[in-house]
Write a structure and sequence with these properties.
By secondary structure, the protein is an alpha/beta fold. It has 21 helices and 23 strands. The chain folds into four domains: 87 residues, no CATH class; 65 residues, no CATH class; 173 residues, 3-Layer(aba) Sandwich (Rossmann fold), CATH 3.40.50.300; 186 residues, 3-Layer(aba) Sandwich (Rossmann fold).
Length: 559
Amino acid sequence: MAYHPANPLIVQGDRTVLVEVANDRYEEARDHLARFAELVKSPEYIHTYRITPLSLWNAAAAGLDADFIVRVLEEYSKYDVPAHVVADVRDYVARYGRLRLEQRDGDLVLVSTDKPLLTEVWHHRRIRPFLIRPLDDLTLLVDPAQRGRVKQALVEFGFPAEDLAGYVAGAPLTVRLRATARSGQPFRLRRYQQEAVEVFYAGGSARGGSGVVVLPCGAGKTMVGLGAMDKLQTATLILTTSTLAVRQWLDELADKTTLSPAEMGEYTGLRKEIRPVTVTTYQILTYRPRRAETAGFPHLALFNERDWGLIIYDEVHLLPAPVFRITAEIQARRRLGLTATLVREDGRESDVFSLIGPKKYDLPWKDLEKQGWIAPAECHEIRLELDQARRMEYALAEPREKYRIAAENPRKLEVLRRLVARHADDHVLVIGQYLEQLRAAATMLDAPLITGQTSVPERERLFAAFRAGQVRLLVVSRVANFAIDLPDANVAIQISGTFGSRQEEAQRLGRILRPKRNGQPAHFYTLVTRDTRDQEFAAQRQLFLTEQGYRYTIGRMDE
């Protein structure tokens, strides 16, 4: 067996890959590996990745071939790559595209050059309900209303279809990016934003026009959405996470495109405007009246209110189940998903793959940091003890209650006070999960508090004051996790989180990654109670960021 001690990888027979962090080639190997494997765990010295069918299908859809993947594994591996792993990689990559959805003479068909495979599909009980009849040995007629559901079923079957059936053009709409924004600032897409648009668009062919673009928080995913609109010139529906995010999209559209106010609409709980470009929230679409006689989701009808040619899913990893269902029915519309991380805590990444589209563009966070497009960040985990009385309460608590007891450790407030004093000249966000804890922190710090109970006008006022430097410290709940533009924020202190949510950790770090004028690093602190569920969940939350190259220093406040 060959042995290459200078290499950082050990590829194992179960398709896991061990990565030696202290190795000189670690970063380059990690950046390649992240394109076709999933991070499983990341302790200090050895990280574990897993090569899965879905990770390989995303890689194939993004244009990677099996030869490239095998070459990466062989180039960076300490030992010979197991032959059956090489065979598995080639097999799974080859499965993508062996079945294709196409349009022929106005019909939606599933085609393959593999007659036995297509015969098996026809007789599969989970797929058969979405098919009408065979047209010949290599062609099955598909119910066009089931285009999304047949794609879901084929992913579960293990042979994802490449969707080449094309898209409706949608209602035409003239929308151009401005060379000079209305604010007077020069404007053009950054190189990587333009690359993301081109990969998504793919020349307007059936191979382009639906998929997910993954970029770090602060890297300008909204600009990719504007670029896609400029390419497609069609009526667009934009889904995002909150009313504040809706208004930020509308502000960017007004500032950087030629759209007039009459062409842009806000569809929220406060306004119900349906215009050629309409921006709404996942919450309003999934609103369900409590009265039995009006059961259902009345606002999902928005998907059919106009001839949309493009639907943009902001923070696509948060897509709610009801919107997944309607997304299955509108596969003829071009779909662009935007996210900092495709991690979903409900495990439905395969639904994003089949219903929104495969990952089309992904750029490592550290690459953008090196280029100066996002701020460098230092991550710190500060561990604290529980006092004796709370340790006993924790010991006797039910499993779910244990986390809250540990997360609300009162000793966190004193550490928080000292950290805020250390960063008195910075722009600081204190972020947490539990309202009582946040209220106590805001009272102690004499700082404004923003939660889900804060009115939208008051949130806008406080965020505007923070951006203007009139307020330098905000205490915020989960409402600030997503799509809030606070470019001067350079310190975030997390006092509690949503159990082991990896995407939440990434989003919270993202709040402070806008490039800073002085080039100084941002600081991300997370306060954790030692030897409790709080520490266990913190380790889980950090997984995605560790994959991106961030390391957490572990210590106490007095160290």
